[in-house]
Design a protein that fits this description.
Length: 585
């Protein structure tokens, strides 16, 4: 009997692979995440979900890899914490060829030591586990099954998850396939992709505007919490490289991704630096986002230690953090890193009309205010001094470092954002009067498909321009969902999801494209509008596909990396420019 079972198992597994049809996993079923490992330091680079079974792994891996058990956090809320994950890999004979138990997050197929991962990399015809002497050829020589036995707190037995792995020699693996982008879609006027001329980056260069997007790469934050899930897909990387002239980190440079404690000598720069290295390799400009954001205390573990500090210690943290970030990245290695978001979202959503008329404004109560009343001025002055110190140290000519204040619900001087836009103007006017080194303002511009306040945006841009300030669209996305009451600030009123009474389809997509087009038109016509960035590029990675907002489709490419009407609208608007505006440098 002991001999008979392995023979039966061998035949059963072999037949299973022979008969298997590809099974595509729904988002909630995508529990495995393949992550690339930096062979030089063992850090995770970027990742992609295993979206089908069998999942095709390329015969030639571009980087070492590991596989994480890491479901999308949106689909596992309320489940008990994980006690352990037992990974087992079997071949078609049913033989166990690899096993590893992980008891701490992130749960990795290959062992790790803290944030340093061992990974599988191609070595001859096999995969060698880095830092080990033994070869593991199970990912290259034939088909295999990966099993994760997940034991949660209180469970009597583990839940079993499986995915079949196969070797792809035809270039169809999401790790290497870049043919999905810019194919298979037609514009409303019948224009096919084969008739397109250039990319968004090329069109922007013709129009004389810096065009780009935030991107998300790091699959984990500094506390090993799951974050970005699609940065490792080859089609995503192709779009980033070919379509964007500027890239910015969505999360990688924020406090909650770089800080785990109050030790200023323990800042984790790696994930942030990865963005700037990518921009340099792609020949792109880069943007730093962000040196100071009050919401950092709501993510990672920043909220555990930062709010407990005294006002004096918070001041030291603010100054020290900014100094170290500027010291690290204001170097000749990154001359393409020009714009820095210094302070993000300091203004209160609700402003007092009398206070505004007197030239004042209301700041939101945060971890920084009112403990440090002048924290905005302090942040900008610190960044400016640190930049000058870095420039003197390196003694190498570099482009000026532009310091930006970034804010939402402030774009238009009319409509629901009028009060906050007046507060923004008063804040900037006061900073200029006090000779605080601020170079520009970022309008985040998270809007809905029925947005129509463009005259107010133009008026706001012009009055800020009169103060000597650049204006940039820094986080534009155009949602299908909307607030029940126009102008209801985030967190108030009811959010009407896409599909509740405004089903996503050609009509809303056309409205969305028109909003994108009109934003671009304002920017192209106003000389102090110096950059145009979207808050992501692919619908499946948008922040609006979580919590109460999901589902939504606010960006330029759909989940299959096909360009939408908004892509075509932006490209056509830029290509239509006959005479470039003399834009501010």
């Amino acid at each position: 009997m002991q001999l008979f079972w392995p023979i039966c198992a061998s035949l059963a597994v072999a037949q299973l692979f022979a008969d298997a049809q590809e099974s595509v996993f729904a988002p909630e079923e995508q529990v495995f995440l393949l992550s690339f490992v930096d062979a030089t330091n063992g850090r995770l680079l970027n990742a992609l979900p295993l979206t089908s079974s069998p999942f095709p792994l390329p015969a030639n891996l571009p980087d070492p890899i590991t596989i994480l058990f890491q479901p999308d956090p949106e689909h596992i809320r309320g489940l008990p914490p994980i006690v352990s994950v037992d990974f087992t890999v079997t071949d078609t004979s049913g033989e166990n060829v690899f096993h590893h138990q992980a008891s701490l997050p992130p749960y990795s197929l290959f062992p790790r030591d803290g944030s340093v991962f061992e990974g599988a990399a191609k070595a001859s015809r096999a995969l060698r586990v880095l830092q080990e002497a033994s070869d593991h050829s199970f990912l290259l020589d034939g088909d295999h099954t990966l099993e994760a036995a997940v034991l949660r707190d209180g469970d009597a037995s583990p839940t079993i998850y499986t995915v079949n792995l196969t070797v792809d020699t035809g270039g169809s693996s999401p790790l290497t396939n870049t043919t999905l982008a810019l194919t298979g879609i037609q514009a409303a006027n019948g224009e096919s992709s084969s008739q397109w001329v250039g990319s968004l980056k090329a069109a922007a260069a013709k129009a004389g505007i810096a065009f780009g997007s935030v991107i998300c790469q790091a699959p984990l934050d500094a506390q090993n919490n799951p974050r970005c899930r699609y940065g490792g897909e080859a089609a995503y990387q192709q779009i980033v490289k070919e379509e964007l002239g500027v890239i910015s980190a969505e999360r990688e440079c924020k406090w909650w991704t770089t800080r785990t404690d109050a030790d200023l000598d323990n800042i984790a720069f790696d994930a942030c630096e990865q963005i700037f290295r990518l921009a340099k390799a792609n020949g792109q400009k880069a943007r730093f986002h962000t040196l100071l954001w009050y919401m950092d205390v709501n993510y990672g573990n920043v909220g555990v230690w930062l709010p407990t500090l005294s006002a004096a210690d918070k001041r030291n943290q603010l100054v020290g953090h900014i100094e170290r970030m500027v010291e690290r990245f204001r170097t000749p290695e990154y001359p393409n890193l020009i714009h820095w978001d210094v302070v993000n979202e300091a203004l209160d959503d609700f402003q007092d009309a009398d206070q505004l008329r007197k030239g004042g404004y209301r700041l939101r109560d945060t971890v920084w205010y009112p403990d440090i009343p002048e924290f905005i001025d302090l942040a900008f002055v610190t960044a400016s001094k640190a930049a000058k110190a870095a420039d003197a140290l390196h003694d190498t000519p570099m482009p000026p470092m532009k310091l930006i204040y970034n804010e939402y619900w402030c774009e238009s001087a009319d409509g629901y954002s009028a009060g906050k836009s007046d507060a923004l103007y008063n804040l900037m006017k006061g900073m200029k009067r006090r000779a605080i080194p601020v170079d520009g303002v970022g309008f985040q511009s998270h809007v809905t498909h029925d947005y129509d306040l463009f005259d107010g945006i133009r008026a706001n841009m012009r009055r800020l321009g009169a103060l000597g300030l650049e204006v940039q669209f820094t986080e534009l996305d155009v949602s299908c969902g909307r607030w029940e009451h126009v102008g209801a600030p985030e967190g108030t009123g009811n959010w009407i999801k896409c599909g509740d009474d405004n089903e996503w389809g050609p009509e809303i997509e056309k409205k969305q494209a028109d909003v994108y087009r009109r934003f671009m038109r304002v920017c192209l016509e106003e000389p102090n509008c110096t950059a145009f960035l979207t808050w992501g590029i692919v619908d499946k990675s948008t922040w609006l596909n979580r919590d109460m907002f999901r589902p939504d489709y606010p960006l330029l490419f759909d989940a299959a990396y096909r360009p939408k009407q908004s892509y075509i609208a932006l490209r056509d608007e830029m290509l239509a420019v006959n005479q470039t505006v003399a834009r501010w440098a």
